[in-house]
């Protein structure tokens, strides 16, 4: 009986006709011809207009501009390659905390959306709907303007336990902190731009994550929560042990998309002066005139970061999501 | 499945064949302008005194007047211009790609730009320099005291490099915040996020006069840390067009030297002076070698005015900005404007 069932599970595959292979091959060749022609045309036009091309400028010229903050120390004598590296590091520096905080926020809001208490549910619904429907650029600008207008000036920074908070940023107590005529300055600072961008990204991604979490929770059949109730598990225990693990299978693919799009949304830092990769590459593009190369760099940075993220999430998906028997 | 594959294959082959037709070449820019009967001019998105559109969409400014002068010389009518607003980021690529014929956008004429972008600068229509604007503080009298201050900058300008050079020469460290649009950097400066804002002296003076909430709380520091000679640019490869644009600028400035204005040019055209006769098209033919008619210089002055009139109207005493001409005076009056001989 099981033998029959096994063979019935997978129907025999039809053989693929040769003509189909040939058609696919021809399409591939045509595509390659199109791409090759585009590249050739671009090179021809660049040469016609006496514009330099190639990636050698990355290593040869000194950049001549400074990058205000980041993990990669960068002075104006360093070359453009190091500038791009610093920019990419800044993208990660804002995307990673935002992703982590957005997940936490999303879980909280998502569970609130399906809570028993109607007040909690309504507030969560209101927040999620508000945040999801306002463009992210507007939210980023709003948070930045609020921070620069409402936080005190650097000279009158709020001081608590070694931290200094002002509209110039949050100065952290580790590292050197000194008094200058322009207020307190320190070596380890979380700038206003960083804080505004992380806050806006967190809130925006958190709202979308909340909906994903809600979808995950609601995808689990009612029978599961009834059974947990019958086993006298509290609501929290039921969520933690029974519902969310099963809901993850539905939630992880859209969550991966959310992560990728949050990483790309960090490019809005350009609008508020945060020196991430788009801002740095734009400055380089302006100074050297190499538009195609710099755009290619921006695209590659995002592609690499996102492919790595997607790969990691695919592994998580395989481990965590429950397989069907 | 086969049908679909065949359709896609056929479609892509057609696309390649169509695309393989001759790519659109600019050809002679002058031919393009005449054929279109319109000059496409790249200008600032909005900078008082240089290029600004009013409520009804009418553009005015020093750079706008230059575009009109070129149109008057080449097409006969100063109004046959299409203005394309460009940002600090897009102005170079707009010219390189052929989207605009001429860039008159307050763009500094420097070595890197003139040699490595595939563009050529036709001259200087305004001499400027980089300066700092700060909120007034006791004891702050010089830019050299700005050590460890936070400075706002607009991206995509020569400003960043100049600032770093200044910092290095004076052993200062700055914290820079780079914005991609002037509105954001202005807001950050006003809110106190930055202690200083750096940019062209003229732009900062205009900002202080027109755009800040309490102009008396702010001042421009005395140091001019760079030379910013700005001028119109064209693409490389078309020397005919380059020569025309260069001589339109020289004619505008030369008219001021000869004392020719919009009001008096018709009167002055009757003069016996050889230079004036030549300028107004009554003497030697100055248009033939450019591919234009004899009256091109006359039309510039008649329809737009000379350089001094354009300056006064847009930036000087006839405008709300009331800027001093400074280095932009004629050489005879102590400035740097030295019109080349139109003979």
Task: Describe what this molecule looks like in 3D.
The complex is a heterodimer of chains A (325) and B (343). Helix content of chain A is 67%, strand content 6%. In chain A, helix 5 packs across helix 7 and helix 6 packs across helix 7 (192-219). A four-stranded antiparallel sheet of chain A has the order 1-2-3-6. Chain A has one domain: MetI-like fold (Orthogonal Bundle). Chain A has 325 residues and is an alpha+beta fold. By secondary structure, chain B is an alpha/beta fold. Among the domains of chain B are: 29-125 and 231-250 and 305-325, D-Maltodextrin-Binding Protein, domain 2 (3-Layer(aba) Sandwich); 128-228, D-Maltodextrin-Binding Protein, domain 2, CATH 3.40.190. Chain B is built from 13 helices and 13 strands. Classes of the chains: A alpha+beta (325), B alpha/beta (343). At the A-B interface, helix 2, helix 6 and helix 10 of A face helix 1, helix 4, helix 5, helix 6 and strand 9 of B.
Class by SSE composition of chain A: alpha+beta
The mean pLDDT of chain B is: 88
Q: Low-confidence segments of chain A, ≥5 residues, pLDDT <50?
A: none
How many helical stretches of chain A? 11
Could you estimate the helical fraction of the residues of chain B in percent?
25-40%
Q: Mean of residue pLDDT of chain A?
A: 88
Using only C-alpha atoms, the radius of gyration of chain B works out to: 23 Å
- Number of helical stretches of at least 4 residues of chain B: 13
* CATH architecture heading of chain A: Orthogonal Bundle
Sheet of most strands of chain A: 4 strands, antiparallel
The CATH topology name of the domain at 29-125 and 231-250 and 305-325 in chain B reads: D-Maltodextrin-Binding Protein, domain 2
DSSP, total strands of chain A:
6
How many discrete structural domains of chain A?
Answer: 1
